[in-house]
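For the sake of clarity, the format in which proteins appear in this thesis is described at this point. The fold follows as a row of integers, each naming the local backbone shape at the matching residue. One such record is shown here in full, so that the layout can be seen directly:
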Amino acid sequence: MSRFVEALASHSQLWGGWVVAPTLIGPEEFAAACYHYVGFDVQHGYLDDADVAMLLRRTEHLPIATAVRLPSADPAPIGRVLDAGADAVIVAMVENPDQAARAVAATRYAPAGVRSFGPLRASLGHDPAALEARVSVFVLIETARGLAAVDEICAVPGLAGLYVGPADLAISMGVRPADAGTHPDVRAAIARVRKTATAAGLVAGIHAGTGQLGNLFAQEGFRMITLASESQALRRGAADHLSEAMGQAAATTERGGYN
């Protein structure tokens, strides 16, 4: 059993952080803040296979689960991140059940799938059945086509859940990505994915981007919620520190503290 599966069994909601660059500090800080998982972005981030392998190794003894977002169901990249120890994969731009089935097949050995055997971490063992069982497979619903096929996608055996990408979903529906969290049509589409996944016994996940939206999505029933990337967290923390410092300095100056 992976840390991701253990976390799902223990918590009604999983809160996630996101890493888009080869940082050693980011995953440790998310773990220290009691996030349940950290996602490594190979689709939009500045991470290659070696970076992901290093980051996964770095998190091996941290109390945090790991997921890797990949741009497609290509079995070779998926196999490499699983060999390096990822607890879950999130496959982007899935628009039909065939693509979802290919994503699952990329995580399974023959005869059930097309994954090639080559574990890189001794701690994972060498039992193919155990290696398969520890992997959670999520597919990203982030287009109008994916939304239209969501019932068929949920019927694909081997999926752990659906993960909503609100920005791309909004764009595909003719809505600005900045309005994804408030536009009624996009909100209805997000709700549809969540309801369909839940009814199928799958985990409903979403990329919130902020704590405020994360809280809203949790109240609506999403179980896997990514809050912010390490760059967003750094930007917010840096801005808060600067605001506090400048506000304190201004107040002190008004009181005549500096001469």
Remarks:
- The chain has twelve helices and eight strands.
- The longest strand covers residues 14-19.
- The chain has one domain: 3-230.
